[in-house]
Specification:
The structure is a single chain. The chain is of the alpha+beta class and about 230 residues long. Helix content is about 30%, strand content about 25%. The chain contains seven helices and 15 strands. It has helices spanning about 5-15, 25-30, 55-60, 100-110, 135-150, 185-200, 215-225, and strands spanning about 15-20, 35, 45, 50, 70, 85-90, 95-100, 110-120, 125, 155-160, 160-165, 170, 180-185, 205, 225. The strands form six sheets. A four-stranded antiparallel beta sheet has the order 1-8-12-13. Helix 2 crosses helix 6. The radius of gyration is 18 Å and the shape is globular.
Amino acid sequence: MGQARIRKLLDEASPTVYHHTSTLRTNQLWMSGSILPEGTMPPVFHPQLGRIHTDASIRRPMKDFPALAWFTRRIEVPRCLQATQIRFGMPDGSLHAMDSDLDLSNAFALNRFAIGFRLADLDLARWCDHPGYLTGEGSELNETAREAGDDPRDWYVSEQPVDLMLSSEVWFSRSIAHPKLTREDWYLADMKRMVSQCRSTPGIYIPPSWVTDKQARALAAKLGLRVV
């Protein structure tokens, strides 16, 4: 039986769910070794903007249900992830918010990225079956997702970190401006190798793909880590 046929049978027997992210955050995922619930990922460094914090409390008050790791059955980049608000911290301590359009959101996120998992390998709940779905926060998330063009019935959630070593697919967009994801099987092996290296060698730093070797070593020294 051909490999394509085997893959098709596996996909039919065990549907795939995807965690959508971007190259802005992939090195943090490798270093943590897991998909972490919202709001628990440390800051990242953008090549032009510097240090970036993602504040999950802006998206919702985080009171009606606990932080979750989010997945979807759809391989396309969720539209709600492309509708973002950016806050700039000024030298005087003030904050200025700006709603970004699609082009600007894609530019800030860098290349889009999706990590696939066979649903049978994970202990996930359908979002529509989760207690948070019908809460005030859940209803607001659902409404804004539908307004953006997404369907919350495609979503799955986990209250616990999800091990990246269980991933089965990697999809990547080579274009920032026009994010069309393509499957990159070679990248999955590299990703798992990085995760394994982080687990076996504590205190290392895996730099983002867009930094130079000199920048990576300077940043690792500042963080007190050893660069790989």
